[in-house]
Design a protein that fits this description.
Number of helices: 3
Number of strands: 7
Bound molecules: coenzyme A
Structural class: alpha+beta
Strand content: 25-35%
Order of helices and strands: EHEHEEEEEH
CATH class: Alpha Beta
CATH topology: Thiol Ester Dehydrase, Chain A
Shape: globular
Length: about 170
C-alpha cells in the first residue's frame, strides 16, 4: 500500500481556447491591445492548472511573455495551454497564441508565455497537486527547462523581498 498520488499527463489538462477579436479589443488602428491577450493567456493557463489539480488556483508568476506579431480586429485567436512542470503545490503552464484570418485561413504564431499557478485550499493555503507524468522526450526537456526557470524565479523572488525590506517603507511606518 502506498500514499503516492497518481500522475496526470499533459493531454489530460490541455486547454484550447478560441476567441474572435472585435473592435472593443483594439485601438483605433485595429491593433488588439496586449492586455487583452495577457488576460486570455492567464485564463487559458489557469484553466489548464485547474484541470490538472482539480482545485482552485492563483497566479504567482507570469514571465517570458513575448509579442512577436500584431493581432488585428477580425482575427480569431487560438490559445493552447499545456502544463510543463509540477512542483509540490505549483504548476508551470506554457501558453501559445496563434492568430488566424478566417477569410484567408492564414495563421501566424503571435505569442508565447510561461505562467506559474499554485493550487489552494479553502483557506487560501497552498495545496499539493498530482505530479505531471512525462511521456515524451520533448515533455522531458520542457520539464527540465521549467524546473530551471522555477529555481531562477525563487531566487529572484527572494532577492526582491530582501530589496523591498531595505528600500520600501513598512506599511505600519507610513
Ligand atoms: C500563492 C500563495 C498562496 C503562496 O503562498 P506562500 O506562503 O508563498 O507559499 P509557499 O512559499 O509555500 O509557496 C507555494 C508554492 O508557490 C511557489 N511560489 C511562490 N512564489 C512564487 C513565485 N514568485 N514564482 C514562482 N513560484 C512561486 C513556491 O515555489 C511553492 O511551490 P512548490 O510547492 O511547488 O514548491 C501566496 O503567495 C498568494 O496568495 N499570492 C497571491 C496570488 C494572487 O492573488 N494572484 C493573483 C490573482 S489570481
Amino acid at each position: 500500500m502506498t500514499d503516492e498520488v497518481p500522475g496526470k499527463c499533459v493531454a489530460e489538462s490541455r486547454v484550447v481556447l478560441n476567441m474572435m477579436m472585435n473592435p472593443e479589443h483594439a485601438n483605433r488602428l485595429g491593433n488588439v491591445h496586449g492586455g487583452v491577450i495577457m488576460k486570455l493567456v492567464d485564463e487559458a493557463g489557469g484553466l489548464a492548472a485547474m484541470r490538472h489539480s482539480r482545485s482552485p488556483v492563483v497566479t504567482v508568476a507570469i514571465d517570458s511573455m513575448t509579442f512577436d506579431e500584431p493581432i488585428y480586429v477580425g482575427s480569431v485567436v487560438t490559445l493552447t495551454a499545456e502544463l510543463t512542470y509540477t512542483g509540490r503545490t505549483s504548476m508551470e503552464v506554457r501558453v501559445s497564441v496563434v492568430a488566424e484570418d478566417p477569410l484567408t485561413g492564414s495563421r501566424v504564431h503571435t505569442n508565447a508565455a510561461y505562467l506559474v499557478y499554485v493550487a489552494i485550499d479553502r483557506q487560501g493555503r497552498p495545496h499539493p497537486v498530482p505530479p505531471l507524468c512525462i511521456e515524451t522526450p520533448e515533455e522531458q526537456l520542457l520539464f527540465q527547462e521549467a524546473a530551471e526557470r522555477q529555481r531562477a524565479r525563487k531566487e529572484r523572488h527572494q532577492r526582491e523581498q530582501a530589496l523591498r525590506r531595505r528600500i520600501d517603507p513598512q506599511p505600519n511606518e507610513e
